[in-house]
Amino acid sequence: MKSTARTHTVRSRTARSRSVRSGFLAACCAAVLVAGCSSTDAEPEQDAEQAASTSEVTIAVTPTTITVVDPGAEPRRVLAFATSDTDSQDVDLTTTSTVQQQINDGAPQDFSSPELTLPLSASTATAVPEDDASNGATRSIDLTVGAATSPDESLNDALSASEGSTARLATTDTGAITALHITPAEAALDTARAAIERSFNAAVYRSVAFPDDEVGVGAVWTVDQQVLSGITLNQRTTVTLRALDGNRATVDVAITQTPESSVWNLPDNAGTLNIASYTYTGSGTLDIDLTQPLPVGGSITAAGEQMYTDPDSTTVLRQTVGDSITWGDR
């Protein structure tokens, strides 16, 4: 009897341990909100009265490697931005992110982020700060956020205090972004600040950089870059120059992401998860004016499915994810 009781106790503790671990793993995996859309982890909602710090936040951007696959047809030329003497550009940036999650046969959970539209005024600064220049930046794009909106009522209410927030993109002449700097408005709330940060991150990792080589219509090149979001992902963006009219370029974009490792080391030394399967692809078209700081139109949509397993239990976590980014000139 005593032996049976002890066995029962051990099993009960093991079951409770697995239950707690499953809950923790679910929370960790929910934070992987599709790095393609946002390289920042999910943040819990804050009290509506809590204001964020107005200090500038600097987000380093992983370097890119550009390889020309096909230089395209003649005539060819180097495509570089020349925006320092142009007037301010007004453009709308709209982003969405969906995450559906299921643990074993449990009920599906929704960790999606609400759609967000940021009206932006963009201009190119005449000087590049020393820290950005040391990392290869040759241009500095200054952004001011207007009256942002969302169909989500609670987020929309929080956004009103974020008008006037600013950001700065450090870039090269060929469009590679090397750093993102964000300064929230003085009264900005944390929920709105986090949503705006996610949208800017989406814009960074859905941007298009041109090669240093001469290219013509039909040219194809790849942009390889790592995306960090809990899991290190290798992202390849394949760009095709579909049309070129003076300074106006239309490019088709295809995106794939693959995990660098088949094992995910959980934060705070909490163990590991096996990445049983991972698919994530996207495509779209962007209209780019080389005399304007930001794309003037177009959209990119991506989606995928992932499955993670716990090596210490039978827990299986599945995610179906997606995101989109849309640019609209005003």
Task: Please outline the helices and strands.
Elements: H1 2-30, E1 57-60, E2 64-70, E3 89-103, E4 109-110, E5 113-125, H2 130-133, E6 139-145, H3 153-159, E7 166-171, E8 177-183, H4 190-205, E9 220-229, E10 231-245, E11 248-259, E12 263-265, E13 272-289, E14 297-309, E15 316-329
Antiparallel strand pairs: 1-8, 2-9, 3-4, 3-5, 3-15, 5-6, 6-7, 7-8, 9-10, 10-11, 11-13, 12-13, 13-14, 14-15
Helix pairs in contact: 3-4
Task: Sum this structure up briefly.
With 330 residues, this protein is of the alpha+beta class. It contains four helices and 15 strands.
Task: Describe, in plain words, how this protein is organized in 3D.
It is built from four helices and 15 strands. The protein starts with a helix and ends with a strand. The model is unreliable at 1-20 and 31-53 (pLDDT under 50). It has a 15-stranded antiparallel beta sheet that branches. It is globular. The protein has helices spanning 2-30, 130-133, 153-159, 190-205; strands at residues 57-60, 64-70, 89-103, 109-110, 113-125, 139-145, 166-171, 177-183, 220-229, 231-245, 248-259, 263-265, 272-289, 297-309, 316-329. It is α+β, with helices and mostly antiparallel strands and 330 residues long.
